[in-house]
């Protein structure tokens, strides 16, 4: 197991949760990926807790007018220590990119994501 393995597992579980249509499966994936008190710095501001992240996914990500859409990790997970970053793309069902960005996550000592900072869009 590499140093990055817990980071990759947590990030991939989080992305899988964003794509899960079944609320029970989404909740289970978020439970695997996030600490209960995760701090989520998203495009709509700061929120705290797994339920807040789940609500964001349900309302904003899955509730997008172009739905059904999906989140795709576009880069490797770069994890120098307890922080990690990864690129992502939010795409329509036909694969057309709607938005892309880079997220930074902090991994707790127990292995779950306890902070997510979303950077949506290009810095060009």
Automatic annotation (TrEMBL):
Residues 11-112 form the SnoaL-like domain. Coiled coil: none annotated. This is Nuclear transport factor 2 family protein. InterPro entries: NTF2-like_dom_sf, SnoaL-like. SUPFAM superfamilies: NTF2-like. Gene3D superfamilies: 3.10.450.50.
């Amino acid at each position: 197991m590499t140093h990055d393995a817990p980071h990759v597992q947590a990030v991939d579980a989080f992305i899988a949760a964003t794509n899960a249509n079944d609320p029970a499966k989404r909740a289970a994936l978020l439970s695997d990926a996030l600490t209960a008190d995760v701090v989520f710095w998203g495009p709509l501001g700061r929120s705290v807790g797994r339920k807040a992240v789940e609500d964001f996914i349900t309302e904003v990500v899955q509730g997008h007018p172009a739905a059904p859409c999906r989140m795709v990790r576009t880069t490797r997970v770069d994890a120098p220590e307890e922080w990690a970053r990864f690129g992502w793309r939010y795409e329509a069902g036909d694969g057309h990119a709607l938005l892309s960005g880079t997220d930074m996550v902090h991994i707790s000592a127990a292995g779950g994501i306890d902070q997510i900072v979303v950077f949506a869009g290009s810095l060009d």
